[in-house]
Amino acid sequence: MTQRRLPSGQGPARRPSAARRSPTSGARATTGTKARTRNTGPVRAPSSRRTPGNDGGEAAKRTDAPRPRALTGRATILIAVIVALALAYTYPLRTYLDQETQIAQMEQSQAKQRETIADTAKELEKWQDDEYLRIQAREKYFYVRPGETPLLVYPDPEGAARDADEKAPAAAPDRWYDTLWSSVQAANAEPAN
């Protein structure tokens, strides 16, 4: 029969063998049942294993091994190192993202400046043309070539009507409800016959 080990990892205590017993103990063991109950070895709890005579009896008790702790010391240190690294990398990451945002804004402003420069270059090319200069001088400063008569038109409808001896434009016709109300008032003003 093999001996079971205890959950603590130690094997069972050894019983003294028959060779180590004293001569009187051996004699007692053969004489009767009293000698068998008197053992010098450590007392063991009754075994919960099934024996051939105990087939239909009570179920065997199962002992649970001690559960390991949820967080060991190594796991705690590893988590602390990971948290420290995460905290150490947050500031550089934030700085990196801020710089990326600044770079994008600067690229947009450069694109706008390039568009402005291109528009200004086109305008400069126009001002290099002599015909464009003459057109601008006529429109903005009312310059004329020698021998031309300048003609200026001022938008003044009242002065134009006065000069042409025309009447001012007629007033807008009355609205329908004004006409209706004036007819009601006229009917009311007639004397009763």
Automatic annotation (TrEMBL):
Q: Where are the transmembrane segments?
A: 71-91
Q: Where is this region: Disordered?
A: 1-68
Q: Which residue windows does the record flag with biased composition (Basic and acidic residues)?
A: 58-67
Q: Does the keyword Cell division apply?
A: no
- The organism's superkingdom is given as Bacteria
Checking InterPro entries in the record gives:
FtsL/DivIC
Under Pfam families, the record lists: DivIC
Q: Biased composition, Low complexity: where in the chain?
A: 11-41
Q: Which UniProt keywords apply?
A: Membrane, Transmembrane, Transmembrane helix
**Is Membrane tagged as a keyword?**
yes
Protein name, entry field: Putative septum formation initiator
Q: Which organism is it from?
A: Actinoplanes missouriensis (strain ATCC 14538 / DSM 43046 / CBS 188.64 / JCM 3121 / NBRC 102363 / NCIMB 12654 / NRRL B-3342 / UNCC 431)
